[in-house]
Amino acid sequence: xxxxxxxxxxxxxxxxxxxxxxxxxxxxxxxxxxxxxxxxxxxxxxxxxxxxxxxxxxxxxxxxxxxxxxxxxxxxxxxxxxxxxxxxxxxxxxxxxxxxxxxxxxxxxxxxxxxxxxxxxxxxxxxxxxxxxxxxxxxxxxxxxxxxxxxxxxxxxxxxxxxxxxxxxxxxxxxxxxxxxxxxxxxxxxxxxxxxxxxx
Length: 200
Prior knowledge:
Distance between the termini: 38 Å
Helix content: 25-40%
Order of helices and strands: HHEHEHEEEEHEHEE
Structural class: alpha/beta
Number of strands: 9
Mean pLDDT: 95
Strand order of the largest sheet: 3-2-1-6-7-9-8
Low-confidence stretches: none
């Protein structure tokens, strides 16, 4: 599928060309991808965990490569999507760990959610957490479990980027996170689909 101009411009700047895993329905917006590249260039995180793989994985991997290299782990609930992401990384000579982590039921006090299988998570501390999954249509507040399940892995000063933050569900998720962790610093960016930035 032909990349729209705003994606093509970003990918050209990053030296990404050829067959890229872009989808009109599934890929993050171009301005969010640019934010990812900028965050990596400016903050140079040692470890990045991404929830949901795809073109964003390539953008992060290339940006990390240019920043001097670090560890990128991407959780993907769909086996075919995980395989496609690995193949795209290989085609571009990029490194990342794309882990097929099927959605399983997790209990978080007040309710049950389907989230990436925690047993598939590798041992790691996180400097940058990128949340662009699971898909919102699966359940209410589908991205809420990320912080409760990953908080103990976040390094002091870690940054969280939550995509699709213009949606009501994501606004509620952020409000719950802030209530549970009053020291979190939050700002909202008016990107195409909205982005919440939270500093741990």
